[in-house]
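Both lines are given unchanged directly below:

***
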Amino acid sequence: MQAIGKFSLRNQGGFVVKLQFVYWDDKGNKIHRDGTGTFPIGQTETADPGDYGVPNGAMVSLYAFVVWGSDNEANQIFTYQKGLDVTAAYTISGTTLNNHLALNSVG
């Protein structure tokens, strides 16, 4: 499984979004963590999952919280490694109720 140190989310949708996280603990429980504040179309936020309570070494995915809409969880799972200079970059687009989350790059 590929290791990352950060996630970025570019908002190209007609809504306001928050970059959040889900991770799996040692017992296989899926845990949701809050992340950045809201940001509008045309902006990008980057965040370190560890700054929001994701443990080093955890399996983690990006979670896009769409304000007043349908949230979207990434299909890709990474291993979180604190301090690693590798970012999984995503873009979210569409509308509040019909949006699409795409992985652009990992690097």
In short: The CA atoms of residues 8 and 48 lie 9 Å apart.
